[in-house]
Amino acid sequence: MANLKVKGAGGLALPIAAVLGAMACFQVGAALSKGLFPAVGPQGAAALRITLAAAMLLAIQRPWRTWPKPAPVAALAVLGLASAGAMMMFYLGLARLPQGVTIGLQFLGPLAIALASSRRASDLVWAALAAAGVWGLVGPSSGGGPLDPVGIGFALGAAASWAAYILSGRIVGHAFGAASAAWATSLAALVAAPVGIAHAGWALVSPAVLPLGLLVALVATALPFSLELFAMPRMPARTFSVFMSLEPGFGALSGLILLHERLAPAQLAGLMAVISAAAGAAWSVGRRPGTRALVTEAPPD
């Protein structure tokens, strides 16, 4: 896709709308996924979504036509494993925690990458703000009642997987371009499908499950991925990163509207602190000469 020059705020309006739409789709899809949990569990829901998404992306992109030489096969394998880990652990955390808390904790992965690239002492304020946010989300004084420690562990595992996805994705994206998502999601499906089958068996292909699984794959993968691909070349990387930092807020909002999950005031304050830290870190990194703002897009699975 050609790089387009954007002049003025008016030229950014459509790409910004696309980014906001992508985040909304992803979080609505995550909320809809909970409807699959009673039938196939979080493992089955993740496997179903990843597998159906891989089929969609393979059909649309046909990535085998542009296999690079030499290809970074090791990085691609890491990207596939990270994509599977991010989605499966996110769903396992989602089964035990409110959606806003889960996505807030998961967002610590890209935030850690941004902070690790910092070379200025002033950027430590974003680390302190993130730490305060985590305490607000899960600390004993959060006011939201005790949270499942296993769920917290899964959400943090999803954060680590997301960080690995970003690091390996930079290498794979440079070599494979737009085909990266199809290859990564296909490899993730090879990891997730056996886990889902072992957990849910034939229920994964039940007529009562497949329609919702297809809807989740479409809303949470095909639509946001297409919207992000439209937006990214049309807006500065720093601007894209800062807007993507709003994603935990979309998670809390969709959890409230679709799942009736209410966060306590301290948890809302913690979520806002994580959002502010992510946005501040993305903006700060993007301001330094010779660097690009961290793109905090979610794994396309």
Provide a short characterization of the protein structure.
The protein has helices spanning 8-33, 37-61, 73-94, 99-106, 108-116, 124-138, 149-176, 180-200, 210-231, 237-244, 247-259, 265-287.
Number of helices: 12
Largest sheet: none
Mean pLDDT: 81
Please mark out the parts with pLDDT under 50 across 5 or more consecutive residues, or reply none: 1-9, 289-295
Helix-strand pattern:
HHHHHHHHHHHH
Alpha-carbon distance between the two ends = 21 Å
Which percent range describes the beta-strand content?
under 5%
Radius of gyration: 18 Å
* Overall SS class: mainly alpha
Count of DSSP E strands?
Answer: 0
Shape: globular
Give a written overview of the molecule.
The structure is a single chain. This protein starts with 7 loop residues before the first helix and ends in a 14-residue tail after the last helix. Helix 1 runs antiparallel to helix 9 (210-231), helix 4 packs across helix 7 and helix 6 (124-138) packs antiparallel against helix 12 (265-287). It has 301 residues and is mostly helical. It has one domain. Residues 1-9 and 289-295 have low confidence and may be disordered. Helix content is 73%, strand content 0%. It has helices at residues 8-33, 37-61, 73-94, 99-106, 108-116, 124-138, 149-176, 180-200, 210-231, 237-244, 247-259, 265-287. The chain is built from twelve helices and no strands.
